[in-house]
Please model this.
Amino acid sequence: MKNLFLAISLLFGGFIFANAQQATPTPNPSEETRRIVRQNQEINRRFEAMRNGGNRNPNLVRQISRQNIEPLYRKTTDKELKLLAPNRIDVEKFAEFLRQPNIGITKLAADFGCAENTNVVVASEDCLKYTMPGAGSSYSFRVKNYRIRRLADITFTDNSFQATGVLLHGIFVNIGDLALENVSLDTEGLKFLTEFKPEPDFEKAKQIDLQLATGIEKDGFLYRRALYAKDNTTYVLRSIAYNGSFYRAVQNIAYNELAFDKRKDVIVAFRIVRRDADGSVTILWKQLTRNNSPKVKRNLKATETKVKKTDFTAIKK
Model:
C-alpha cells in the first residue's frame, strides 16, 4: 500500500486520492487511480521496449494511426450528441442567457465505467450506447466537446466533479447558490483562482497537485481537484492544461497524446440545472477567461531512467 501511495503521488494532473481521515467525506476514486497506475506502468514498459526498435513501415504507421489512434480523439458525432442533448425545457428556459458568447449547456452522463481504458471496449448496454470519447461523462470546455478523461477539463463520476486531465491543474471551488449571470472574476471566492500562477516547473507543479488533492483553504473557501456535485450550487473551475508531452503507445506506435488536444488555461463557472433518473446531470456554464498556458519543463538528472523521460507517467519502482 505504501508503494501504491508513492506511485499515485507521482501522477501530476489527473486522479484524486483523498485523505480518508478528513471529517467531511471527499471524492475518492481510488480504484480508478490504481487502474491508471497499472496502465501507465504497462505503457512505460512498451514504450521503453520499442524506443530503439528501428524504423517502421510509413504506410503501416498511417494505417494504425487512422484505425486505432485518431478515433480516440475524434469529435462527437451528431447521432451521439442527440443521446446527450439537454432537455428542451432547460434550453428554452435559459435561451436568452445561452445567446451570449462563451455560454453553454452540457449534459454529463453517469459514469458506468465505460471510459476506464481507452484500449478496451466495454460491452455493457450503457457503454454501447455512449460511444463518444469519454463515454459522455468527461467534457472539455477548451474544445467544447466530449473527450477522453485524460484530455478533459471535467469528469462527472461518483456524484462528484473531478479534474481528470493529465498534465493539468484543475481547481474547483464552491461559491454557493449564486446565479451564473452574477458571477464575474470579482466574485467572492475567485481571488485564489485568478491570482494562481501556472507553474512550468514539473517538480513544483507536482507538489501543488498534491496539495490540491487534499484541498487548499483560503479566505473561507476550499479549493480542490474534486468536489461533490450539489444542487442549487455554483462552482468555478480553473483548468490549466499545460503544454508538454504525454506519450502513449498503440501497437508499438508511440505518439504524444497532447498533440491531439488544445492546451489552454480557462476559468469556467457552472451549476447543475437538471438531474435525470439515469444518473446524468445537466450543467449550465459560463467561460470567464481563456488564455494560453505555459509548457511544463522538467530537468532530468543523469541518473534517471529512459522510462522516466516519458514525463507524466513516471513511476518510481
